[in-house]
Design brief:
The chain is built from six helices and no strands. The protein is mainly α.
Length: 190
């Protein structure tokens, strides 16, 4: 697939995924930080997970929502990283001073956040679909949830991990949506 086709695919998928991924990032951060650092209630946690997993759509649609949002994020990650690699390959030897822009921040952050976001998306999908469709036991599913939320780092670092991954996703969303021009104000013609 050419860089131009990848860019078109990336730009078409981005606005569709913006709101679900924004809600997922905010609710994931709020759940983990709220529960770990502030001791917020189970009711608060359930409300955040309702948003995070799309439970407001109804129980049968939760795995579908998680699958579509996760696969959409994975597609954005892979197409974005591929575009960056192709751009770097095509511009070898050309060094230009980089001026600050949303595109620059987006391009610099993408390789850093790629792996944590990809792991988070794939383990989140595996956890939810494994429980809902494939009959994973709680113990088996917990393995994927532990990876999804960085539990292997310990209780306090797990919260830091979720915060950093969530902020990384939010940064990619904000810089990406700025590049689409959707949020630019249009001049009013008199």
């Amino acid at each position: 697939m050419s860089t131009m086709n990848l860019r078109k695919l990336h730009r078409k998928i981005a606005p569709i995924l913006f709101l679900p991924l924004l809600l997922s990032a905010f609710s994931g951060i709020a759940y983990r930080i709220g529960r770990t650092w502030f001791g917020l209630s189970d009711d608060f946690g359930d409300f955040m997970m309702t948003i995070h997993e799309g439970r407001y759509l109804g129980k049968p649609l939760v795995p579908v929502y998680v699958l579509l949002a996760g696969l959409g994020l994975a597609a954005m990650l892979v197409s974005g990283i591929t575009m960056i690699k192709q751009r770097r390959k095509n511009s070898q030897g050309e060094s230009q001073p980089a001026k600050f822009s949303f595109r620059l921040v987006h391009g610099l952050l993408a390789p850093v956040i790629f792996l944590p976001l990809f792991v988070s998306a794939s383990t989140g999908i595996t956890y939810r679909l494994g429980k809902a469709w494939f009959g994973l036991s709680n113990e088996q599913a917990k393995f994927f949830l532990d990876i999804h939320q960085g539990s292997y780092l310990g209780k306090e670092l797990r919260a830091v991990y979720v915060l950093l991954v969530g902020l990384g996703l939010l940064s990619m969303l904000v810089t990406g949506i700025q590049m689409t021009g959707i949020l630019r104000s249009r001049a009013v013609k008199a």
